[in-house]
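Input (DUF5319 domain-containing protein):
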Amino acid sequence: MGVQDEPIDPFNGDPTDPAAGLNDLNEDAESEPLTEDERQDVLEDLSDLEIYQALLSPTGIRGLVIECEDCHEPHYFDWDLLRGNLRHLLTSGRPRVHEPAYDPDPDHYVTWEYARGYADGVHDTLTEGSDDEPA
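Output:
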């Protein structure tokens, strides 16, 4: 027998499995697809994420921090994980189940608002003086 890629489920077949009800949730939670407005919002978030990553990664920022509405804890997402979560939302119509990252360094993450402001500042700096202003 070779090495297993996935960890073995210690509760496999256990009638007291604490996660047993999660399968029922997935079956019952056939959610409605995103509305056109919601879909557009997610596509815009994906586009913004690309810009934020391009601008902020060279400064040592690894991703974004989001205040979770459910648990009221900050969740730290690296760029690829956040991109994957947004793509999952587009295809399934619902967010992935998530847990906070283990011991992230908050100095390496910024909020959406900070990233947006940073991108706006870079844009304004690059376009400053590019308008044909009368002398």
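The beta strands are 63-67, 74-78, 109-110.
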